[in-house]
């Protein structure tokens, strides 16, 4: 009996070794090494699937996953389904395998001067801003962010100038009085809307539609693309062209995650987010006119505003941030003056 049991045991052991050897051969027959498990990195954003930024992000994520040959698996979460904004940036700063695509203002919680660079009424065109983020001034801010655990991959994800979408037309700061307007959870936006004459109500963007329906707020501020893409026009029909802030997202990855990647993986991620920013910009510029026409067809009325009055109204905002580096506004304006001169001269 013992002999029989021993034979059975040896037979099973042989089968097990053969099976293991088969698996090993299958895993190593092409490259001689076992297949590396994909590194999962979450990518979170507030943008909904119908918005251009989300569409461009889909392309970026697909390209990275394909180019990495299975070593990376970026997972995109739109519409704020996973932490975004302040909570999302905390995930990045704390070292999670995380990429956040959200407002530059959330970088301002870690490096306050970012808010100065994206302050109210600064830029007249997209090109001015895109040149600004390439200056040594902004590159130094990116270095400071890195010291806080945040690797800035891009500051180029533009989605248009932000305007006021409300239940009544806005032409002057006087028209803003008493209006409850949704803003991101950011001091920059809060102070800007207050200076313009409104009552800011901070809330996550995905909550805005219901808040408008329920009368919790009277309107919001945002770009034409966001206004159309999230169907806010179903609740408010007056779009006032204040152009008070430029809508732009930063792409940030945790430094800990970034440092743990191979050179090849880092190159792939950087290249594809750069391509994505250009794709997003190109499509955004195409869509602004198209969406403006569609909004008009849905009963939305566009209004020009007294730009000079709003410029004067927001000027005190730059004095409300004691954490900003003294003289930062003057440095920004020096760079901006040079940028405008270069553009004028075709440089």
UniProtKB/TrEMBL annotation:
Which BP terms does GO give this entry? transmembrane transport
Which keywords appear in this protein's UniProt record, sorted alphabetically? Signal
Q: InterPro entries of this UniProt entry? A: DctP_fam, TRAP_DctP_sf
Q: So which residues are the signal peptide here?
A: 1-19
Q: From the record, give the transmembrane residue ranges.
A: none
The record, for PROSITE patterns, names:
PROKAR_LIPOPROTEIN
Under which name does UniProt file this protein?
A: DctP family TRAP transporter solute receptor
Q: Which organism is it from?
A: Fusobacterium nucleatum CTI-6
């Amino acid at each position: 009996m013992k002999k029989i049991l021993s034979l059975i045991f040896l037979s099973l052991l042989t089968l097990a070794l053969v099976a293991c050897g088969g698996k090993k051969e299958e895993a190593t027959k092409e490259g001689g090494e076992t297949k590396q498990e994909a590194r999962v990195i979450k990518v979170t954003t507030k943008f909904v699937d119908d918005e251009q930024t989300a569409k461009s992000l889909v392309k970026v994520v697909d390209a990275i996953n394909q180019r990495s040959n299975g070593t990376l698996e970026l997972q995109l979460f739109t519409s704020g389904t996973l932490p975004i904004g302040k909570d999302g940036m905390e995930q990045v700063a704390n070292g999670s395998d995380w990429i956040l695509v959200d407002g530059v203002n959330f970088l301002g919680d870690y490096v306050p001067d970012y808010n100065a660079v994206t302050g109210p009424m600064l830029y007249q065109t997209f090109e001015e801003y895109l040149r600004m983020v390439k200056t040594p001034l902004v590159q130094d801010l990116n270095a400071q962010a890195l010291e806080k655990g945040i690797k800035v991959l891009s500051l180029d994800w533009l989605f248009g100038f932000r305007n006021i979408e409300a239940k009544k037309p806005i032409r002057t700061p006087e028209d803003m009085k008493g209006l409850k307007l949704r803003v991101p959870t950011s001091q920059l936006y809060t102070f800007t809307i207050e200076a313009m004459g409104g009552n800011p109500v901070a809330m996550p963007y995905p909550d805005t539609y219901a808040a408008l329906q329920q009368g919790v707020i009277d309107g919001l501020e945002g770009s034409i693309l966001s206004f159309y893409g999230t169907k806010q026009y179903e609740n408010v029909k007056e779009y006032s062209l204040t152009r008070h802030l430029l809508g732009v997202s930063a792409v940030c990855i945790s430094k800990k995650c970034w440092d743990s990647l191979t050179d090849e993986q880092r190159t792939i991620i950087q290249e594809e987010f750069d391509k994505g920013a250009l794709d997003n910009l190109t499509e955004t510029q195409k869509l602004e006119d198209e969406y403006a026409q569609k909004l008009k067809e849905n009963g939305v009325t566009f209004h020009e505003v007294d730009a000079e009055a709003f410029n004067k109204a927001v000027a005190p905002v730059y004095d409300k941030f004691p954490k900003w580096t003294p003289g930062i506004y003057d440095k920004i304006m020096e760079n901006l003056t040079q940028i405008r001169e270069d553009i004028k001269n075709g440089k």
